[in-house]
Amino acid sequence: MTEPATPLPIVIGSRSPRRLELLQLIADPARLVVLPPRDADEPGFNGLSEMSEFEARCHEIVELKRQDVIRQLAEDSAPARARVVVCADTTVIVEDSVGALLALGQPQETGDWQNEVRGWFGDYLAGRTHFVLSAVSVSLCSETGSVSRTLKQSCLTSVTMRDDVDDWLDWYISTGEPLGKAGGYAIQGAGSVFVTKFEGSYSNVVGLPIENTVEMLREIGALPS
Predict the structure, then answer these.
(1) CA dihedral in degrees (213, 214, 217, 222; nearest 10)?
(2) CA-to-CA distance for 94 and 100, rounded, in angstroms?
(3) How far apart are CA 55 and CA 198, in angstroms?
(4) Catalytic: which of 89, 96, 112, 164?
(5) Which helix (H) or strand (E) holds 119?
(6) Is 163 in the active site?
(7) Which residues is 87 bridged to in the sheet?
(8) Among 78, 124, 138, 191, which residue is least crowded by beta carbons within 10 Å?
């Protein structure tokens, strides 16, 4: 399948600058349109115990984002044209002291995020392996606003961190980088000092699995094969 003569705009249903940067690696930045969901409320992960349940919840969150963005496009007064909509959700999943799974969110500046991050490293991250799970959807929308096709995939990456984090943690927290990062660290930034190994997609840990996204964009006709 070849790319259309006039490539379709790719609408990114996300506020994440990291997802935008990753999409700019695989598509012409001039094609990219940022349109975050209006509703920031999302279902949580409390009460889930199996990885399959976390995966299903990620897809549920992505579906809510997708519907929100498509509603906004339907309300757009600009001249109608076909578009591709990409939505994603990423969460960090750790094991507690008895092996139960739980999701770590993003430390928020309004709270005592420094001690929250210290607790996450001490209890779940340092010297242990955790998982980064993403769900991604790609939808093809016609000129009338109807969705003709939607593809969905998920991606799981395991990340192992060093045990001796104490010499680095206060410095890392002082950089402010943990803010707004799932799990309180950025593998593509200064947080890389803690990572000793990862298995799977690196870009998934950053915020969007490029491999899965390219595959779906190709299948839907938005990128050349």
Answers:
(1) 140
(2) 8
(3) 19
(4) 89
(5) helix 113-120
(6) no
(7) 137
(8) 78
Q: Tell me the one-letter amino acid at 118.
A: R
Residue 129 CA to residue 119 CA, distance in Å, equals: 16
CB atoms within 10 A of CB 214: 17
Cβ atoms < 10 Å from Cβ of 176: 12
- Mind listing the pLDDT tens digit for each residue in 22-80? 999 999 999 999 999 998 888 999 999 999 999 999 999 999 999 999 999 888 766 56
3-state SS assignment for residue 182? helix
Nearest-angstrom CA–CA distance, 145 and 201: 33
Work out the widest C-alpha separation in the chain, in whole angstroms. Answer: 57
pTM of the model: 0.91
Q: Alpha-carbon distance 74 to 67, whole Å?
A: 10
Write the CA distances from 114 to 81, 167, 173, 182, 183, integer angstroms: 46, 15, 6, 14, 12
Q: What is the DSSP letter of 122?
A: I
Which amino acid appears at position 149 of this protein? R
**Residue showing tokens 């757009």:** 76
